[in-house]
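User: Predict structure, ligand S-adenosyl-L-homocysteine.
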Amino acid sequence: MKADVLSMFPTELSELAVSLGQPSYRGKQIFEGLYKGADSFYAMTSLPERFRALLEENAIIKTAAVKRKLVSKIDGTVKYLYELYDGETVESVFMRYKHGNTMCISTQVGCRMGCAFCASTKAGLVRPLSASEMLLKIITAEKDLGEWVSNVVLMGMGEPLDNYDNVIRFLKLANLENGLNIGLRHISLSTCGLVEKMDKLADEGLPVTLSVSLHAPNDEKRRQIMPVANKYSVAELIAACKRYIAKTGRRISFEYSLISGVNDSPSDAAEVGKLLSGMLCHLNLIPVNPIKEKSFVRSEKNAIKLFTETAEKYKINVTVRRHLGADINASCGQLRAEDKNAIN
Ligand code: SAH
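Assistant: Predicted complex:
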């Protein structure tokens, strides 16, 4: 198998150079070439010609082709459908916020978590993404738009903690000063709550923001919409969150998709309030984006207001997420699903 250089740290690139009979400083030159936008080794003119030819034989610079690009007329949000080396497709969204350009990226092609309201998981998991494929979404968008990305949310397709090693590698690479130089504090990782992996993440010492998809106030309701709740109870999940906060000192952001008649009653809100009360956390309410395959309906404005006020009584910091890219189906897995349907 050819070495996937964009997934490698400078030290690993040095080892590759040495293994091909070159001095180790060539590793740094390859790394710099990659982030200057080289998409072939021949374009890395700081390297001797014979070495470039050797690299072409032994290594690969992965690329992502823009298969579709949709630009929101409302808020300038850009949604990309990228085609990867094997023809698989993944989506990413570029959003313009006051605090900087934010990119929402995927961590897997498909997903095996099976959440009932999510379009990404309908056909199951196809394959994990490599660190390079995650980086490429940012690199390709930056090139295409001529703008920098300063914030990243791992909230696209896939479950980041189900692709643990590649995601950790991605986080460390994205943070490198001579690479994308994205601050870890500006990266959010969202999980449906894989408890053991949350504990592992807490031990990594990476100051990323952890988002936890809660979506229900108790086991019974959570099991109806999130199969992962059959594996971990809400109590186990919350205990893991408390361990994470104790270990990292960082606030957790709980995500809660409001689905009319399913999880949006005032008593649901009170239960959530009790559950999170006293924790170093934030509750992010997301009116559900209805997907084609299911008949979930977004909560009414009044229900959202009442839910917010009820949860706030427990001294929880609550926000309702702004909805960007409404005209381009900017939520999770929808563009890829549409593209697949068009082909099949
Ligand atoms: N696997 C990760 C990342 C998924 S996407 C996780 O579960 O957290 C990021 C967020 O979008 C998750 O909270 C997910 O539950 C939510 N989401 C997925 N589909 C949605 C939809 N149709 N409407 C609203 N939120 C949705």
